[in-house]
Amino acid sequence: MAIRRILSAFAIAVAQFGAAGAQPSMQVCHPFIVQAFSELPKRDSSQPSPVGDVPAFLAGETKDCPGCDLRGAQLQRRNLSGADLRDADLSQASLHRANLAGARLDGARLVGANLNLGDLKRASLIEASLSSALLYRADLSAAVLTGADLRGARLQLARLSQAQMQRALLGGAMARLASFAGADLREADLQLANLQEADFQRADLRSANLTNAGFVRTNFTAADLSRVSAFNADFLAADFTDARLANADLRSIRLDGAQLTCANFDNAILGPATPQ
Q1: For the chain, which end, N or C, has fewer CB atoms within 10 Å of the first or last residue's CB respectively?
Q2: Average pLDDT, the chain
Q3: Which domains does the chain have, with CATH numbers?
């Protein structure tokens, strides 16, 4: 039954894609290399974080302010590269165009913070709270966001290539045209997120929750979506070339116009939801 569902969905998607004007071409399927599970990054809780000097930090005398109360601080364009801001409260702070490359922000609160156009390359944000944060065009390439809370965050055009986002919470996030190329999103929660035209090439999404999320024209080329839960997700015109969707729950998804060349659907569940 599962095989018939897969073949039926594949035939419908290919037919609709062809009707839209796609030209047939010869494709060579590439072998998919399953990545080994690696240990997730963890916060160093062996020692309590020191508490920084708030006045000195705000005066620009030091970059470090771990555990500080910096709610609403105006830190636009500040050079905080490599800064120690672990467990700091930066809720509603303005860090527009700030340089936080390589900064340590594990456990920090950045709820509603303005990080638009910020440089957070290689920053560590393990278990940080960035719910409703503004991250338009922010660069989080190779950042560590394991267990981070990004629910409702605005990530349009953000760069998260090679980022570690295992178990991150992205429910309701707006990430249109964002790049997650090569990112590790194992067990991440993307429910109700808008990821239209995002780039997930070679990303690892094993066991992620994509329920009710929007992936219109999203690029999943060579991505690993094994065991994802994608009930009622919208994959209109998405590209799954060479992608792996083994054991995925794909009930009630929309695949109209999707590119499925060489996609692996082994043991996936496709078709309408099972009546209760």
Answers
A1: C
A2: 89
A3: 1-15+68-276 (2.160.20.80)
